Amino acid sequence: xxxxxxxxxxxxxxxxxxxxxxxxxxxxxxxxxxxxxxxxxxxxxxxxxxxxxxxxxxxxxxxxxxxxxxxxxxxxxxxxxxxxxxxxxxxxxxxxxxxxxxxxxxxxxxxxxxxxxxxxxxxxxxxxxxxxxxxxxxxxxxxxxxxxxxxxxxxxxxxxxxxxxxxxxxxxxxxxxxxxxxxxxxxxxxxxxxxxxxxxxxxxxxxxxxxxxxxxxxxxxxxxxxxxxxxxxxxxxxxxxxxxxxxxxxxxxxxxxxxxxxxxxxxxxxxxxxxxxxxxxxxxxxxxxxxxxxxxxxxxxxxxxxxxxxxxxxxxxxxxxxxxxxxxxxxxxxxxxxxxxxxxxxxxxxxxxxxxxxxxxxxxxxxxxxxxxxxxxxxxxxxxxxxxxxxxxxxxx
Length: 397
Known about the structure:
Distance between the termini: 109 Å
Strand order of the largest sheet: 2-1-5-4-3
Low-confidence stretches: none
Order of helices and strands: HEEHHHEEEHHHEHHEEHEEHEE
CATH architecture of the largest domain: 2-Layer Sandwich
CATH superfamily of the largest domain: Histidine kinase-like ATPase, C-terminal domain
Number of domains: 4
Radius of gyration: 36 Å
CATH class of the largest domain: Alpha Beta
Number of helices: 11
Shape: elongated
Largest sheet: 5 strands, antiparallel
């Protein structure tokens, strides 16, 4: 009887253990099934994202072999996915060695940005692209390969070429304006001078005044034409190099030495100014225009004082030119950098209205910004930013 009960208990224990193992195995199978479904779903989702891109996308192994592509890559190359996978990435470009250097740079540095290449289609068609690539890693953190995306810039390049053609036409127009238009204008001014000299004594006061208006108008038109030519040529012929701003400011002060002396202006410049990228002549013109404006539009009630300084921001140098002149109304601040905008009374100091537009064009061509803070009767402060050059010393003389 006892033996029989032992057998029953043993069978029950075996059954319980078997049942527990079955439940555990079923749960593990369920978890794995769920995990497989999640991985499959994520894979389908990732593939859908990749295929939805209009840009060619590829993954590249450390030895330069293509491991995956999207449909856009097939269209760009004219080669099927089956043939692309396993082939050398660099063979589908007009400059294979340049393409090889690009993905090697991505592996070495972790990423590349806007790397220019040209994809060659099997038909011979060429597509200009900019590649952006970054490495991707496995669960252990080791680099598995590079993910690269190409942005088709064919249309952008065509627009750029059209803009170059338009700019060339505008430059030709500026030449015509400076030469062909100034010639007859000089003749008008010359003959007006002869008339004023020979007939002037016979004219009454009103006619003399009107003749003076015509002569001054002709001279002003000539100055505007020269200013327009100057604006159109700004930034066209200079080469961006590392320039100590202190040297550009010193040149500007030398050019304005007579105006500074005659006006009694006091100009203070921080002893060490930063070194920035730009054309030295263009940068000199920026400070010459700002200092000259501070002198021209100085207050009649106090000596003219001009302060030039700077501070370091995160990625930029902030430079300022402050004065204690007549100032500008806040509602006019947005207009001061527009070409031919003169914001002083008609009987105020003369100017072409182009100096600040030139400053804006030069600063923005170097990736910076310029703005004004001003209060009527108290003065103006012009602020300029210049990107900090990667290899530039913190400041120079």
